[in-house]
Amino acid sequence: MDAETASAGSKNLIFEAVIKPHRSLSYRAMFMVMGGMIAVSLFMTSEMAHLGAWPVIGFNIAGMFLAVSLFWLNMRAARASETISLRDDQLAVTRMDVHGRSTSFSVPPDWLNVVLEERPGTVPKLLFSSRGKSFEVARALGEAQKRELAEALSRAMHRWRNPLFDNPQLR
């Protein structure tokens, strides 16, 4: 998760957070692990063929196909992301799925509340609620990251609602 306040270059952007699912392997590391698994599998398959255990070869190939497919699905799921941006006039949430399709919605931040709904035994839900309606954001984050994001969003909403005015006459 990247949570950062806006730079001086974009005047109306107050807060932006980009949320991506955590993956422990980079693409390079994933290909190294898969290459190692395939190399060991080929070695074991050749040993089984040498020993005459032909049925093991089919199961080994099926197991490697399953492992490579699961690695591919895991890395494909890493393409999903969610962007939360607070501007002067709206809070926008843009979700990108694994296929590259984007859905977005925006709400005026005037009556928006950031709610961390505690659920015993599970990760809390991070909800935006406004005028009786609520929607969940940041489903990919863990408990600590959701608490950190909720706190950062609350601070940004407070800054938006309570701007500091620089009055030179009061200096």
Brief sketch in words of this structure:
The protein is of the alpha+beta class and 171 residues long. Helices cover 40% and strands 27% of the residues.
Describe the structure.
A hairpin with a 3-residue loop joins strand 3 (81-87) and strand 4. The chain has helices at 27-51, 54-77, 143-161; strands at 2-5, 13-19, 81-87, 91-96, 102-107, 113-117, 125-130, 133-137. The chain is an alpha+beta fold and 171 residues long. The protein folds into two domains: 2-22 and 81-162, PH-domain like; 27-77. The chain has a five-stranded antiparallel beta sheet with strand order 1-2-3-4-5, covered by helices on one side. The chain has three helices and eight strands. The longest helix has 25 residues, at 27-51. Helix content is 40%, strand content 27%. The chain is elongated, with a radius of gyration of 24 Å. Helix 1 (27-51) packs antiparallel against helix 2. Residues 1-10 have low confidence and may be disordered.
